[in-house]
Write a structure and sequence with these properties.
CATH architecture of the largest domain: 3-Layer(aba) Sandwich
Structural class: alpha/beta
Distance between the termini: 48 Å
CATH superfamily of the largest domain: HUPs
Helix content: 25-40%
Largest sheet: 6 strands, mixed
CATH topology of the largest domain: Rossmann fold
Radius of gyration: 22 Å
Mean pLDDT: 89
Strand content: 25-35%
């Protein structure tokens, strides 16, 4: 097992177990409960997860895309309340570890005051370890075990990473964001494109994201582009650019209130998706695309204005 530098090694640990892809509202509730126990028992909350989705090793062709890249996942876990984050490399050997051996290794790694896991958490060889085994092991070894029930939307849908991916692929960014508890983000360095948009008066930040990142349905979104300490309202196009195709899937963010002359190339940027304006469309010529961009901007500005008005007490 690998780890970050730990806090006081003499303090007991509350261990929160999970994959935590997306650190969505269900994960946040699990961490919240673990944090409460830690604060009331003089313990340290340690989140324990794997360095990749198990399917990436066991069946790569069926492995899901990531909702969060490693850096974003760490930031969101800490923001949710994790004091320590333990990342276990997932290998074929890890997959063959019996669940009893996995739990023994956890117990030997530190003094555990409590274990917290989601209702559907599985671990160990063939996924044989489950919530029931965690509770039984806790009783045997005197470790408090808390199994967190599913967190649901107002409509009763169970919040999960799988459900969020499906909402993203359907272009339902509003529901995906509601399940996440924050706007879905795409991060990466700003790279040079073919500069076609610049000639149309619409300079863009071409964000190169990981191939493992789950992209939403192709289309035009309104959101926030952040680079360093600066943020701008933005139109964000995700897709294959059918009017002027480049042969690649691209994420291009146009900062509507940035103005000309700003150089973001080589810097790390984040595009947070707030609204989906329309699907990706092939226009008859660049001028038709330019006219549509103007309409997209008007619609986005109205949405931003309404969003800001709703935030005013």
């Amino acid at each position: 097992m690998t780890s970050q530098l730990w806090k006081d090694p003499s303090s007991p640990r509350v261990i929160a177990l999970g994959t935590f892809d997306g650190v969505h509202r269900g994960h946040q509730e699990l961490i919240r409960q673990g944090k409460w126990i830690a604060e009331n028992t003089g313990s340290v909350l340690r989140v324990c997860t794997f360095d990749c989705h198990p399917m990436e090793i066991l069946c790569p062709e069926r492995a899901p895309k990531h909702l969060t890249d490693p850096g974003e996942q760490m930031r969101r876990l800490k923001a949710a309340g994790a004091e320590e984050i333990q990342v276990i490399p997932f290998t074929r050997e890890t997959a063959e570890t019996e669940p009893e051996a996995f739990l023994k290794t956890l117990r030997e790694g530190c003094g555990i005051s409590a274990l917290v896991a989601g209702w559907n958490y599985t671990f160990g060889r063939m996924g044989r370890g489950n919530a029931e085994m965690l509770e039984m092991d806790g009783r045997v070894h005197g470790i408090r075990t808390v199994i967190v029930p599913p967190v649901t939307t107002e409509a009763g849908t169970v919040i999960s990473s799988t459900e969020i991916r499906e909402r993203l692929m359907a272009g339902d960014i509003a529901q995906a964001n509601a399940m996440l508890g924050y706007p879905y983000t795409i991060t990466g360095p700003v790279v040079h494109g073919v500069h076609r948009a610049t000639g149309m008066g619409s300079p863009t930040a071409n964000i190169r994201c990981s191939e493992k990142k789950q992209l939403p349905a192709y289309g035009v979104y309104a959101g926030i582009l952040t680079c360093g300490a600066e943020s701008w309202h933005a139109l964000i196009n995700i897709g294959i650019q059918p009017t002027m195709p480049s042969g690649e899937v691209k994420v291009e963010a146009w900062a509507m209130n940035m103005g000309q002359g700003k150089d973001l190339y080589g810097q790390e940027a984040e595009a947070a998706l707030l609204f989906r304006l329309r699907p990706e469309i092939r226009f008859p010529d660049p001028e038709a695309l330019k006219r549509q961009i103007a309409k997209d901007r008007e619609e986005a500005e109205a949405l931003f204005a309404n969003r800001m008005a709703c935030c005013v007490p």
